[in-house]
Amino acid sequence: MARSFRHFEGFLGPGSLKSKGPGPLDRRRGRPAVPSGVPTLPLGPGEGIPVSEIRLDYTNAMEAAVGPRHGLSDALLSSLEGASLEHLESVQARRGKDLRWMDLPYQDEVIDSILSFTASVRGQFENVCVLGIGGSALGPIALHSALNSPYHNLQPPAGTPRLFVLDNVDPDWIGEFLDSIAPEKTLYVCISKSGGTAETMSQFLIFRQALIERLGEKQHRDHLVVTTDVEKGVLREIVRRESYASFVVPDGVGGRFSVLSPVGLVPAALVGIDVRGLLQGAAAMDERCRRADYLENPALVHAALQFLMHTERNKPMAVCFSYSHRLRDMADWYAQLLAESIGKRKSLGGEDVFRGPTPIRAVGVTDQHSQVQLYVEGPFDKWFTLLSVDEPDHSVMIPTAYEDLEGVHYLGGRTLKELFQAERDGTRIALTEANRPNVTLSMEKVNAHAIGQMIQLLELSVAIQGEHYQVDAFDQPGVEAGKVAAYALMGRAGYEARRAEIEAASAGTARIV
Q: Is 161 helix (H, G, I), strand (E, B) or coil?
């Protein structure tokens, strides 16, 4: 497999996004025609995707809907205006420095290199397998489930590989994959910003060896592509030694904020997702969220709602209820973003504060039959964000039958869209009538532009929340503590003292039933 390039870099700041023609199309089957009068982005001859702003409806979070005990007053929401604008200015001032994830929508040259690499390997692999964990896995999973068919791996479009994301080191999970998927038919995408993540590096070593055994020392290199730091870390050193194709995670882009970097975009492009559309949507939201008007800025409003619901209305649990099966993994991605960013022991001033909301994921209508009983009648310790889609890609009619049985007959002649949206609205009504505050984040259709908007909105919201909570939203000392303990238990050099501490602490009498 001949390649004229190996190392893919490039990162541009705001204002550098240039139109260079269409990217790869979203290949979902069954996409309906775009309604007349809806503005579109050009994707190809006679084709396009609807472009519309996603909407945050927080009517049911206000006291007029759910009462003063659980809802917010206009005065309370407005009380955060000054701080919100100040925090926005502070975060924006860091975008070209340590918060470079904010500029990811404008990396036009990186997109060019990703699409060039994708073209160079098109048709050569049946499978793409992501080796990664945390943000290196949740982002690619969320993009794939949102923007490709839920049955993509059963019948991928012609020339497009299947996608597998191995986000664990459970030996049965990895062992079954080794037994089932041929390495010689697979492109492995190894993702680790630090290059030292034990889970990812163990996966890398396992699949590298499998490739060498099947293909030999030389040819195995064509089946591995690496995304890591531009110069630091053991994985970058391995890239130098082996000449693997590689992409860069820029400085200032942490794992949970990396989905719009090569971390998410390389796997997405390889399986046919419109990566240009993603960045165009994120750029549109970035521009929208630079507005100074507090109540017209969705990121500021969303951050204020989370903070006030937690601190002023004693609701530490944030339920993300996805009324779109395509968006279910976006809720998983957001759970990491929220939990890892805001869940902190120390404040910015160094005091013990033990802050952070608890994210909960739910899928409508599935979890109406498993969780909603608790949500409607249980403790008043939760607030809810419903993810909603106006127009599904498919129209499915419910047949008419059993006209003498009203419990069945009323469904006939209606569509699954009508039923699904009635179920969503029924849940919203039930929550509101039970004085459970809820908001709805809506998009017209699930497409790359809308998903790009959603990602940029929630990332900026969480950055502002960090300022509200007065914690560092960009570190993760709790995660690092677990990593250090694992290094010690695995015998990594330099962690002998920590291993001795662990062994001493566990030397007491065990209590096991």
A: coil
Distances (CA, A) of 327 to 323, 439, 483: 8, 16, 30
Both tokens of 185, joined, read 């038919």
Task: For residue 48, give the 3-state DSSP assignment.
Answer: strand
Tell me the C-alpha distance between 380 and 316, whole Å: 10
Q: Which of 217, 369, 403, 406 is catalytic?
A: 369
The Cα 271–Cα 118 span in angstroms is 9
Q: At 265, which amino acid appears?
A: L
CB 44 within 8 Å of CB 23: no
CB of 390 within 8 A of CB of 445?
Answer: yes
Catalytic residue among 185, 346, 417, 483: 483
**Residue positions counted in the chain:** 513
pTM of the model: 0.89
Q: Which of 199, 340, 444, 459 is catalytic?
A: 340
Q: Could you read off the pLDDT of 55-66 as tens digits, one per residue?
A: 999 999 999 999
220 belongs to the catalytic site: no
* Strand-pair partners of 131: 166, 190
Do β-strands 352-355 and 55-57 pair in parallel, antiparallel, or remain unpaired? Answer: unpaired
pLDDT in tens, 3-24: 433 455 433 333 333 333 333 3
Q: Say how far apart CA 130 and CA 122 lie, in whole Å.
A: 17
Give the β-pairing of 352-355 and 344-346. antiparallel
Per DSSP, the three-state class of 383 is strand
217 counts as catalytic: no
Angle at 44 between CA 39 and CA 46, to 5 degrees: 65
Query: Is 483 a known active-site residue?
Result: yes
Name the 3-class secondary structure at 353: strand
| Each residue's pLDDT tens digit, 245-258 | 999 999 999 999 99
- So what's the pLDDT on residue 291? 79
Q: What number of CA atoms fall less than 13 Å from residue 354's CA on the CB side?
A: 0
Asked if residues 322 and 362 have their Cβ atoms less than 8 Å apart, the reply is yes
* pLDDT tens-digit readout, 350-409: 999 999 999 999 999 999 999 999 999 999 999 999 999 999 999 999 999 999 999 999
